[in-house]
Design a protein that fits this description.
The chain starts with 12 loop residues before the first helix and ends in a 5-residue tail after the last helix. Strands 1, 2, 6, 7, 10, 11, 12, 13, 14 and 15 form a ten-stranded mixed sheet that branches. Strands 5-4-16 form a three-stranded antiparallel sheet, with no helix packed on it. It has a two-stranded antiparallel sheet with strand order 3-17. It has 16 helices and 17 strands. By secondary structure, it is of the alpha+beta class. The longest helix has 20 residues. α8 crosses α10. It folds into three domains: 286 residues, no CATH class; 113 residues, no CATH class; 55 residues, Arc Repressor Mutant, subunit A, CATH 1.10.10.410. Its EC number is 6.3.5.-. It is an enzyme of class 6 (ligase). It comes from Nesterenkonia aurantiaca.
Amino acid sequence: MTDTLTDASPLSFEEALERFDPVLGFEVHVELNTKTKMFSSAPNAFGDEPNTNVNEVCLGLPGTLPVVNGKAVEYAVKLGLALNCEIAERCRFARKQYFYPDTPKNWQTSQYDEPIAFDGYLDIELDDGEVFRVEIERAHMEEDAGKLTHAGTSGRIQGADYSLVDYNRSGIPLVEIVTKPIVGAGSRGPELARAYVSAVRDIVKGLDISDAKMERGNVRCDANVSMMPKGTTTFGTRSETKNVNSLRAVEHAVTYEMRRHAGILAAGGTIVQETRHWQEGSRTTSSGRPKSDADDYRYFPEPDLVPIVTTAAWVEELRAQLPEPPADRKRRLLAAWGFSEQEFRDVVAAGLLDEIDETVAAGVSPSVARKWWMGEISRLANARDLEPAALGVEPVTISALNGLITQGRINDKIARQVLEHVIAGEGTPEEIVTARGLEVVSDDSGALTAAVEKAMAENPDVVEKIAAGKLKAIGALIGPVMKETRGQADAGKVREIVLAKLGIEG
């Protein structure tokens, strides 16, 4: 066998599963939303000018000493409890040695053999209601690295002319959640990947320990995949697709890697143990660097930090503060909203439960909130190849749009236009409707009556049908009126005017 067959054509998903069984593993990194960083007093904030939220500790200057962020430890314990983990009575930090430009100390302060939480599990509900238990090996604390921006035509490390580093993210507190190897998922592996990451995101949002915006990298997943021939139990060589930051991308990355591994193995090649990069445009992965093992990092206990000791009383105090579990919340919302089980599963599968819940809290009925998020917002997101939440539409925006419709100031068609202008950054729905003159045409000036009269004059056959009692034919006049009024006519008002013109009682 050879390791040169790395460009063999991927098998189809169906053929891959006929010949091989997948073994999966996920490492989900959760950025904590503490006010300051993990080991320094530098601000933990997103979106500021590069290299402004830094101090001597973030930059790894000689002679500096770290101090543990107590709130980050509290958050890590809460997350461990929510993941059904055991909480360590004593744990410590270690130095993970490696050189990379975004790690100015030349090591990452992490936890190795003594994580704060271990031996947990999550029961993951798939789209059809089947529950799959994912066992969690550990959840450990560490600090984030800085961010590299690769400059050049590609925008990626391959082919970049040079790279810029921003240390604002360096030192932000993280919890890394590592699963045990997952076997038995079969064809549902990609679906399980998406559902698992979604469940973790729901948990950290519910705990309010992370902003949990995947598009910002607050939650990101390293997806590990290997394939073993049918009938065997020895795990294959794994690859790790790094920093996948959307639910859709996690599902697609696992699908592609399953197919890629199967293609190489079926052609007689061997898999290189490596990290890989997700390419959203082509929905493929590309080679990164050979994957290091623990020995390569030369872990040793961090000499500048004392061990962390927890007490049973403190852990139980934090356990009592945990919010409603996501599974219980889903059951409550299903009953409260009145959706069918399939409608509710579709919402959960789309990752829109929180958005719809917040929109309902903003005063919109559940059915209307679902219509907007599962309909127009999802359509616009798909057109941009984004997750719906990444469009930046706020629940109050949907509430404002619905209010304008209820008041009769705009109709559904205009509301969809207004939404696009909101996404483009033109302001609130009220501001956009006013600035663009998008209110429905009233008949205060006679404009709507004039448009109706014109439509009736141009469609005498339709008018005859209506006069003969075939009132459904009014629909054939609404189109021309809408065209005349640029879609701003009130269809109900059009019907009233037509009937009045023909002397027919509504």
